[in-house]
Amino acid sequence: MTDTKTILFLLVLLIGTAGLIAAEPLVLTEEAAVALALEQNFGLQSSRLDLEGSEETEKNSWNAFLPDLTASAAAYQSEEFLSDTGYISNEEWGAYGKLDASLNINYAAIQGIAANKLALDSQKIIYETGEDTLIVNVKKQFYKLVADREKLDVERKNLALAEKRYDQTRVNYENGLASELDVLEAQNSYESMRPSYTDTKTSYETQLMTFKSLLGLDLEKEILIDGSLDVKERNPDGKPDFEAEDLIDAFLMNRLDVQQAMKSVEIMENTEKITAIGNRTPTLSLSGEWRNTTSNIDDPDWYDYTTLTLALSMPLNGFIPGSSETVSIHNARRETEKAALDLEETILNAEEDIRTILMELDGYRENMEITELSVELAEKTYEMTEYAYRQGTREILDVEDAQNKLLDARQDLVDSRYNFLSGLMDLEIALNADRESIQAVLKKN
Question: What is the pTM of this model?
Answer without folding.
Answer: 0.77
